[in-house]
Predict the structure.
Amino acid sequence: MKISRRGLLKFTGFSIVAMTALPRMAFAARNSLRGLRTGVQPGNKSRLVIETANRPSYSLSYPENQLVVTLSNTGANNSIQPKLAADALVKSVVQTQVGDKLQIIANLKKPIAEIQKSSILLLEPNGDNDYRLVLDFVAGTTPKSYTTTSATQTTAITAARKYIIVIDAGHGGKDPGCIGRGGTREKDIVLSVARKLKNKLDSNGFKTYLTRDSDKYLRLAERANIAEKRKADLFISLHANANPSRKMKGFSIYTLSEKASDEEARKLAEAENAADKIGVEGFTEFEENIRIALSSLQQHAVAEMSEEYANGCAKSFKRASIEQQPGPDVRHAPFAVLRSTVPGALLEIGHLSNTAEEKLLKTDKHQNKIVDAIVRSVKNYNFEV
């Protein structure tokens, strides 16, 4: 399910105005507004779309009968006339420059409830469209002082809101995963890394859960279901790879897609999904897939947040000088364990089929290096988009 921000989002109730793309380099230091429009979505939802030249850093606040979107380091564009849908909750939209911040103030016909993360989408440029911040909302009430902020560097963790991370150590029990020439079993390596990762994330203010903390077998749907039940903000599935070429080594990172990005990704997904073909006598039968009705926007949001994390994780690994498998930073394939409403990625932390990397993956030093890289990627991940 690779639903990219680059994919065209179809808006109901209003048209997307084509705008001439200006050179992006000119706006490297300062963002600029490109468009404002509203629309109406199924379920009596109103939509506000804010288009900018560069990726926006924003915060939301909810004064009485208003929605205020504050864009950091952004200049006003008074030549823009908002395109307003007649039936939306928004009756007018105005711009106010406050220092280096631009406030987009939507005056509302009724108060609105806090906009949930699943109703916020940030789309990357596509065709004639630039970056688009898409907000869907309904009538309701929100505390007057409530403000949400997007993170651009390190996510702030507060006692009031600990982000929940579910760490999945792949395979286990009767399913050893791949086995290196030296006899190293994938299930043991990833469980060791998962335990270290949980301890490190807990010490950094996150709330973490393991899908397994012992050598036991779990169905793939059960692993995904744990993330759902824990109401996780992020799901990280840890694996170690094998390749017919014993020279192949390095980490690789994957997100969910119904179509594999390449033949190697397809074969890997088939191999990982084959874990469910192992006999499951004595285990509770879980539903094949977590069947939760998702709006198109939610599907886009989950896919985009997964892609966001995966790209950041790849950068963190490379900055830690952990060798990467040749190929793109992030690949995509239909991994059953990633089928849920929780953003997530599958991390192949190295190749047990490579003798040197097998020895490396067994050491505490290298495992801690991997853990530190993942922790940095989680801390830098924008949980609020």
In short: The two ends are 19 Å apart (CA to CA). The chain has a mean pLDDT of 79.
